[in-house]
Amino acid sequence: MGGGRRRRIERSSSSIDRRYKRPCNSSERHRRNESRNRRARRRSWNKKNSDHFSDRSDRLQPASSSKSHVTGAGQTPSSSVAPSVARPVVQDDRDGHLIYQDGDIIQGRYEIVRTLGEGTFGKVVQVKDGTKGGRQFALKVIKNVSKYREAARLEINVLNKLQEKDPSGKFLVIQLLDNFDYHGHVCLLFELLGLSVFDFMKANNYQAYPMEQARYIAYQLCYAVKFMHDNRLTHTDLKPENILFLNSSYRVVEDGKKKRPLRIIDDARVRLIDLGSATFDHEHHSTIVSTRHYRAPEVILELGWSQPCDVWSIGCILFELYLGITLFQTHDNREHLAMMERILGTLPYRMCRKSKTKYFYHGRLDWNEKTQAGQYVRDNCKPLSRYMKSNDPEDVELFDIISEMLTYEPSQRITLGSALDHRYFKRLAPHLRLHESGASSNGSSTSSAAATTAAAAVVSAQAIVISGASDGNGEER
């Protein structure tokens, strides 16, 4: 035993003697030095990457093949890399967004298919649920930032309380299917829907929706928001971006008047989304709410707000569905108020008196029409009724309900219960009407009816179908 050990040591010593004591010329010494340097660099690279992957052991797991090869970001699968070594760690970018790639698996079951959208709150990704046969969902991944995490938890609370009142989702508010915390990122799982009302309009070159489709979309929106109001909740961020179609499939027709293709959505059923800013009556009310173009005057003037501010937003949305343009295209409070006065008439004295004086002088809006901004408002805004395309009864009815929704005084603004009984919605086909006891035709029959209604509204002597289209899901997100 001892002799064997001595022989091994002697062989090692002999090897060292041969390696370092054998005479050699300068070129051979240079080759050996280069060889040693290459080996040193390789050892350094291996150690660096070994540390890199061992530190990332909690990372999202990409979907594995039958050979269980797992790759990190930017790597290609290799049979020489053991799964336990190549599992990368969860990392965030500088803004707090989760860093991921298509194929990564979250929570051991949700495989990321693609990114659907991004906002200040985080990102929305399309995922496949490995435990449900690959069924597709939308996963909202909140930034790893404290204020967004808190907002997400408030949204979860709102969604859960609404689902207690409406477990089947018949009131058209999006349903929360799952929620969990993933390494500091609050994640919310929803059904996978189609494009938003805004994104579809954008892809359609901002062409307005046909009257029947606009009516049906508006009706569903009023129905969903009324449900929230009945439960002492204000959405506070109603806009076309937060109204999603169930499916984005469409047909293309040729508009005989404008001589250009027009997309017609096949199924105009929608869901109301993004309750992250929704506020119960008893909760703290932020001073400023709503996206600028849909913001009610009482919010701008900081007079306090409640459910009527949602009604104002819906009035702006109805106008946009009808014409394809926003009613109040501005980013300045004073200019916004000037536009309101140009379109809707003078603001009530009571609101002027109670608001901050910086916008008013002697009870009237402090606005100089001779400035560049004043000329812009004068040239681009006109009384509401002059925006009507025609004097047809349904156009008149639409602008009547819009004017009732855009009443300055919140206490005098129409409620959504009354709005749903307005004659504008009386023209809605009976099988598309919804009832609080349950959606009367909210199934395949409604889907086909909506498509039929859309076709009837547009495909006429002046509109010829020129092609079928793919589902368009996710286009121009």
Task: Walk me through this protein's architecture.
With 477 residues, the protein is α+β, with helices and mostly antiparallel strands. The chain folds into 2 domains: 93-191, Phosphorylase Kinase, domain 1; 195-434, Orthogonal Bundle (Transferase(Phosphotransferase), domain 1), CATH 1.10.510. It is built from 15 helices and 16 strands. The strands form 5 sheets. Strands 1-2-3-4-5-7-6 form a 7-stranded antiparallel sheet, covered by helices on one side. A 3-stranded antiparallel sheet has the order 11-10-16, with helices on one face. A hairpin with a 3-residue loop joins strand 2 and strand 3 (110-118). It starts with a helix and ends in a 9-residue tail after the last strand. Mean pLDDT is 81; it is low at 4-23, 48-59, 62-86 and 438-477. Residues 62-76 have a biased composition (Polar residues). Keywords: ATP-binding, Kinase, Nucleotide-binding, Serine/threonine-protein kinase, Transferase.
Q: Secondary structure elements and their pairing?
A:
Blueprint: H1 2-21, H2 26-54, E1 61-62, H3 83-86, E2 104-106, E3 110-118, E4 122-129, E5 135-142, H4 146-165, E6 176-182, E7 185-191, H5 197-203, H6 211-230, E8 233-234, E9 243-245, E10 250-255, E11 260-265, E12 270-272, E13 279-280, H7 297-300, H8 308-323, H9 333-344, H10 349-354, E14 360-361, E15 364-365, H11 372-380, H12 393-405, H13 416-420, H14 423-426, H15 444-458, E16 463-468
Helix pairs in contact: 6-8, 6-15, 8-12, 9-11
